[in-house]
Amino acid sequence: MTGAGTPVDTPPPAERPRYVRAPGKVGRTWTVEDAIDGTFFLVGAVLVLWLGWVLVARELTFSWLAIVTVAVFWLLVAYVGLPRLQEVLARIYVPDYFIGRTVTGIGVLGDPVNLALDGSEQAMNAAMRRAGWTRADEVTLRSSWGIVVSSALRRSYPAAPVSPLLLFGRRQAFAYEQEVDGNASQRHHVRFWPVPEGWRLPGGQRVEWLAAGTYDRAVGLSLFTLQVTHKVDADIDVERDFVIATVRYACPEARLRVIADFATAFHTRNGGGDVVHTDGGLPILDLTGLGPAPEDAAPTPPDAPVAASPRLPPPALLLSGGLSASKAALSLVGLLVALLGGPRARWLPDVATAQLVVLGAGAGLIVVLWLLTLRRLRWARTLLMAVCGVEASTQLAALSGAGHVSLLLVATTGIAVLILIAVSSTEARRWVRDGRSSAAGHPAKPSADGPPPA
Known about the structure:
The chain is α+β, with helices and mostly antiparallel strands. The chain has ten helices and 14 strands. A hairpin with a 2-residue loop joins strand 7 (174-180) and strand 8.
């Protein structure tokens, strides 16, 4: 019986083989930015432990305000600190080469790649529109609010945005969807990525596009982050076959071939913690030569949702902005109370007015640096992390040696640490690094050598 594979006719060695030399160390390439972000994250982790020790070991006057403050602080740690830790761990154990899986913004394995295509982007758009699919809006503040409202009130939103997933280090170029029964909570959707120039599938075949199609069955909480998200149906092969069938029905000239057993059939979880399984086959739709029909070239109606709105910054960067504003507000209130001689005993013990002035100035600087980071200035992001680290360290040193713990200093210190951890995230760095080209509609083209450093 002849097994699979190509026979090798090379004769066996004539002499006893010997090991020439040990291979060099193989691993990921860590850039200067990786080292800087990793250092700031470690600093943030140390500061979190230090702050926890201050809260436990020092005398803190507990009141309803104190209880709420501590609860909010740990809630933010759960939403910022734990996802950031998950991101760091994922960078260590999740491969950065193609394994047939997408990854989420924090690096956790996302939906499997279950479809490949050949053809131009114009052919893709034409085929999907003819098949009754709607191109998803970009994730903007307006579109994000729209899907929240439509899901809560069960209103129709056929072009609702889909969350970004990464392949080859880049988010999807575009996505298409079909709403089910006018309910934004349930929908068919598929994301598309162009493959790097010269890149081949495992096994040597060339394709021009890869896609991941899944069916959103409901809205629920993510198993990994407890954030509100769509829950995916487990049998992603059914959705893959549905996408192919709709395109072939609308475009009979489309050709189809299948790479059987492209991947081992598996059961796993996606980035939201939903179980998914596939038979491992990879269909390839050939849309080469498919031109746009006259109706495909029609301009977008003026009352359609605006897809060209400025792209929404990543959640970590938005959250750090809210924290920066909160820190500035707390510092201003504390300074006003100190200057006006109001009651200070419970939340401002032993805090000098000069210290409050410095605290307010630091909060103002953090707000300015956050705004500059939002403008995608690299130096502003690095300086923002440095300022937060220095300020948190200084305040923790003061808290450790103080006779009484100031609730105001605890709150502002915790906020500074959370900003540091959030801004050092990969998604925040990605926004600063290549956000200009993406926002302008010209995403950097991935390289055949693999994805850029995360």
